[in-house]
Amino acid sequence: MSADAKKVAVVVACVIAVGVIFGCAAGIKPAPAPAAIAADHMAQWKQRNPDRANRWVEEEKERHKILPPADNSALLKGEQGKGHPYGNYTERDILLWGRETEKLAVEGSQIFHSAQRLGGTVGVSCDMCHPDGANTHPETYPKFQPQMGRVALLRDMINWCVQHPVRGKALAPDSAEMRALEAYIIAQRKGTPLNYGKH
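The structure assignment produced for this chain is given below.
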């Protein structure tokens, strides 16, 4: 084989190798984002459980006592009815507000009653010390908490409990889990007057 033929063979082999490498690389897809994975898992669960997919709120309410949100239907009449600057609400708005508020509290109930969802390492969940959200007193926050040595908000106390009795990692202050836990705990004290700083 001549030197020129060898050079051509090497170039062709290199071109083929590069084509194979790029062809394989082009077929490799990046790993999906965690949110996409979660959405995919939820879609699969809904497909396998069509009768339960829309009943999770009702199922959680059957398992645990959850107080309903306020009835805002009075906003549709009286001083805040039609013609009032804030009176452009409809019955649909009122239903949506109630449903979405209740869903957040129900999600909080699921987390509150699950050591796994709290990220605990010793099998402890919030309800073991606070059945149905008892003895949480969200209406008394902010207040000085001796175990922290400072004034705490409700979310600070939730994180203290997550880190100590539950033995989990602190939740981000504005995480979906923290917002849901706060919603559930506050919902369980519906109708209790605010009295911040009370021990």
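Interim note for the steering committee: The helical segments are 3-27, 34-48, 56-63, 91-112, 115-118, 154-163, 176-187. Residues 23 and 146 are 63 Å apart (CA to CA).
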